[in-house]
Design brief:
The protein has helices spanning 2-9, 11-30, 32-35, 43-49, 64-69, 89-97, 136-139, 141-156, 178-192, 201-216, 238-251, 279-295; strands spanning 56-62, 80-83, 102-111, 221-225, 256-258. With 300 residues, it is an alpha/beta fold. It has two domains: 1-30; 33-295, Rossmann fold. A five-stranded parallel sheet has the order 2-1-3-4-5, with helices on both faces. Helix 10 runs parallel beside helix 11 (238-251). The chain starts with a helix and ends in a 5-residue tail after the last helix. It comes from Paenibacillus aestuarii. This is SGNH/GDSL hydrolase family protein.
Length: 300
């Protein structure tokens, strides 16, 4: 009786709450952050979009250094370029755990000087960051507001047109000047220079998971140390981090290609991104040659 009285007394509020929940579920089913060009797209969604929404294939995973350096359409290996803005190994771990992408045939992981920083800010719209209990509209409220304001402005003009949101990933043409590069180095050093291995613990654990996943799924795993502009000093944490990462990779017999200090400054757009005109084509060819050499049977 008390329960019936409670529901009767609060029927309007409960009905409104139920309507909001159902509406949010319907919007989540529509999933406009993926399906509608009215809304911003993160780099994971852009990857799917540019591959006809396929969610399986061989992958070259990393952060924006991979996006800038690996030209998929010019590669003979034709890995799916899955460079994510501010991507980390913890992101790849979640993609694999949640089965958001089925990596087949080959997994190449690019690690640069920022890929394993636990505290590095990332794109909060990546699919694996949304808690199951958090309303869809609340999670992406900023993007609903942006598109909603555009809709209202255009509707006031008697139009339903909209500006499709940018669907391509950021590339890195040309070369920044020395003043810019020095300012970026100073900024990185101020933010990350004092870091030690404990600041990479989550990503080191993610590396262990990725190694185990590859072994359990008989998935060939390769790692590339991504290029860094050697005109500027390495971040102080790089040497101990590389030592620990390489220790794990060596123990698991994972092939490693170290290109961190291979390229001259003329091939870079900035400190961590190869430029599209000169650096990226050379990098793509070198990675292709290395991957192909691993597929050839060794001579006894």
């Amino acid at each position: 009786m008390k329960a019936a009285a409670f529901f009767k007394k609060n029927s309007f509020v409960l009905g409104l709450l139920l309507a909001l929940i159902i509406s949010d579920q319907l919007i989540a089913w529509w999933n406009p952050m993926v399906s509608s060009r009215r809304f911003y797209k993160n780099d994971f969604t852009k990857t799917l979009y540019h591959h006809n929404w396929s969610q399986s294939g061989p992958v070259f995973f990393g952060n924006s250094s991979v996006t800038g350096a690996y030209i998929e359409e010019k590669s003979t290996d034709r890995l799916v370029e899955m460079g994510l803005s501010y991507g980390k190994l913890t992101d790849l771990e979640q993609i694999l755990k949640r089965d958001l992408y089925q990596v087949k045939d080959e997994l190449v992981v690019g690690i640069d000087v920022h890929t394993m920083i636990d505290a590095l800010e990332t794109d909060p719209t990546y699919q694996w960051f949304k808690p199951w209990y958090q309303p869809y509209v609340y999670t992406y409220r900023d993007y609903f507001r942006d598109s909603g304001e555009e809709f209202v402005k255009n509707l006031a003009k008697g139009s339903l047109e909209y500006q499709p949101r940018w669907i391509d990933k950021e590339l890195y043409p040309g070369r920044q000047d020395n003043a810019y590069l020095q300012s970026k180095w100073d900024d990185y050093n101020k933010r990350f220079g004092a870091m030690t291995l404990k600041d990479f613990s989550a990503n080191l654990e993610a590396l262990g998971y990725i190694i185990r996943y590859a072994g359990e799924h008989q998935l060939p795993l390769r790692v590339v140390w991504m290029p860094y502009n050697k005109a500027y000093p390495d971040p102080p944490y790089v040497a101990p981090l590389k030592q620990e990462v390489n220790r794990q990779l060596q123990a698991a017999n994972v092939p490693v290609l170290d290109l961190m200090h291979t390229y001259d400054p003329q091939y870079f757009h900035d400190l961590v991104h190869l430029n599209r005109e000169d650096g990226a084509p050379v990098f793509t060819k070198e990675v292709d040659a290395w991957l192909n050499s691993l597929k050839k049977p060794s001579k006894s």
